[in-house]
Design a protein that fits this description.
The chain is an alpha/beta fold. The chain has 22 helices and 4 strands.
Amino acid sequence: MSTPGDSNRNFDIKEEEEHNNDIPLRPGLRRHDSLDIESAKFNGHHDHHDTEGWRAILKLAFQSIGVVYGDIGTSPLYVYASTFSNGIKHEDDIMGVLSIIIYTITLIPVIKYVMIVLRANDNGDGGTFALYSKLCRYAKVGLIPSEQAEDQEVSNFRLELPNKTNKIASKIKQSLESRHAKFLLLFAAMLGTSMVIGDGILTPSISVLSAVSGLKKATNTMTEGMIVVISVAILIALFMVQRFGTDKVGYTFAPIICIWFSLNVGVGVYNFFKFDPSVAKAINPKYIIDYFKRNKKDAWISLGGIVLSITGIAVVFAETLTSSFMVVIMLVIWKTNILLVILYVLVICSMECIYLSSVLYKFSQGGYLPFLFAIALMFVMCTWNYVYRAKYNYEINHKVSQEVIKDMIIDTNISRMRGLAIFYSELAHGIPPIFKHYVDNVPALHSVIVFVSIKSLPISKVPPEERFLFRRDSIESDYGVLEEQGRIADEDVATLEKASRAGVVHLVGEHEIISRKGSSIGKRFLIDYAYNFMKKNLRQSYNVFEIPQKRMLKVGMTYEL
């Protein structure tokens, strides 16, 4: 942006080039734009990460102990009680289950997630949606048509696309860009996220209730009612603290978890040497084979309890979806050797599918609760996505053309007002139809109108120096033309400042979305009831942009979808 004094700055071109020769030129320009000079004041995001170093990594690792490893570290405690609910039939079954636990923790959390999945992070973010957004940049699998050439100027967005030399990657990319595959990928991403959230709704309650229930063994005065009251009080306190951020919660609980882990290690080492060092033999996978030979179907059913050693049941479903995304990423993005991909599928994916089948066997025994929550969340996500895409396509098909804009400018029936009008739009391509609706009903235009289009990219972070992209069109290489363009730019800045002094108004679109006449009952329910109910509970965009209420004017328009 330009300051009021910019219009009075007239640098000689040669002096400007010598003074700013260390700032990279934009393509097609022979001199530096003042906007380039200002943007160069920001430090690049790469330098920021380099300066953090090991100190930041160790800090984050300590924080994660209180969040991630606190959950993984407590999960194995429930395994034996869930696996042998009907008693132990054979002594070696204990060794068999222990061997399964050892190899499960080694293969899934350590090898799959730590060594493989964490490498597929999306600029530091992980999860099913992060994998989906990563794929959206390598292939045109997004359902909202918002790709622009300027997107490639963002360093986090620029990626190496599959080329024709890699036939496997090219073929898979081509198949992913089909309409059915796009819907399938989005559905899988939303399903995986819903499963994790659904499981997260129940996990805190179950964990706290289980921990408080242990007080019954310490005292006989503890009743069921008191356990419920104490558990509810602890949960309320935890969720009140949660609003301060996961990092604060992590730092709070990390020292407690470290002490708890240290005590566990001490007790484990003491019991190992005093009672039974032979448990170390569980490292032998033969105990797993013998366990399944002896118990057959019961051994497969018991996997539903053993899986608790790594993950609170619905997350198993999310893990299988993550593995599916990873196979696609390995082939399309990493271009991994096909033999290694097959090995990953045979070992990791097969194990997770077996666990999933065992979990689904116990679906009616309480496993349906996380799935019910996940289905409800899926309905919310799918409804919002469906209506949002329909609304976006409506604006694309009804956007205001350049000819209409020219007619508005020369129309003598439209009066002119002093001041600056800032018109906000979610449309990345062109001017939204609500602007024409505004002019038709209020036949008046401000002296200066600025259209602000907020562009969303499928990445988590955009470096500060790249959040505003400035471009000048039709600039020739001749110095005389450049000087003329610089003079016009200064005049534009002066006009803008004059208009802003006369008054600024922020025009915000207030869309009412209804179903078109003759729509089916299902479509009317989704649009007229479900979507509009969600929209009423949504934080409005003018709150996000912190638009001053006294200078805001809402423009209403009805979209029939």
